[in-house]
């Protein structure tokens, strides 16, 4: 585990953005030593450097990352949708933002993103209810 100011800031911000889901990922995906290295690198370089930059609030950054996931068909959309929900975006707002991208990135990517969003929204609703 790195011991830098960016790592400490990034690890704390990752936990803040993801909440309990960060703990779940630490116990599953990141239980593997190789994946722990990726988690630590992303905590330091992505969350500790890019997400902590001034200029945009966390809510806006979350939406930008969701849009990038749709554009690139990234699997991480499930993580970033959770972050966006935790930052105050509603399911409807996120769906509209994804739908807007149809003309820019194509219907197949938007369709896939909406299917992933549907699953994430159902899971988050169930967790909040339980």
Structural account:
There is one protein chain. With 130 residues, the protein is an all-alpha fold. It folds into two domains: 1-53, no CATH class; 57-130, Up-down Bundle (AhpD-like), CATH 1.20.1290.10. Helix content is 78%, strand content 0%. The protein contains eight helices and no strands. It has helices spanning 5-18, 20-27, 33-50, 58-72, 77-86, 91-100, 102-105, 107-129. The longest helix is centred in the C-terminal third of the chain and has 23 residues, at 107-129. The radius of gyration is 15 Å and the shape is globular.
The gross shape turns out to be globular
How many helices does DSSP assign? Answer: 8
Highest-level CATH class of the largest domain: Mainly Alpha
Q: Report strand %.
A: under 5%
**Total individual domains:** 2
The CATH level-2 architecture of the largest domain is identified as Up-down Bundle
Coarse structural class:
mainly alpha
Percentage of residues assigned to helices: over 70%
Radius of gyration: 15 Å
DSSP strand tally: 0
For the sheet with most strands, the description reads:
none
Measured distance between first and last alpha carbons? 34 Å
| CATH homologous superfamily label of the largest domain | AhpD-like
Task: Provide the residue-averaged pLDDT.
Answer: 96
CATH topology of the largest domain: AhpD-like
Order of helices and strands: HHHHHHHH
Can you tell me the residue ranges where pLDDT is under 50 for at least 5 consecutive residues? none
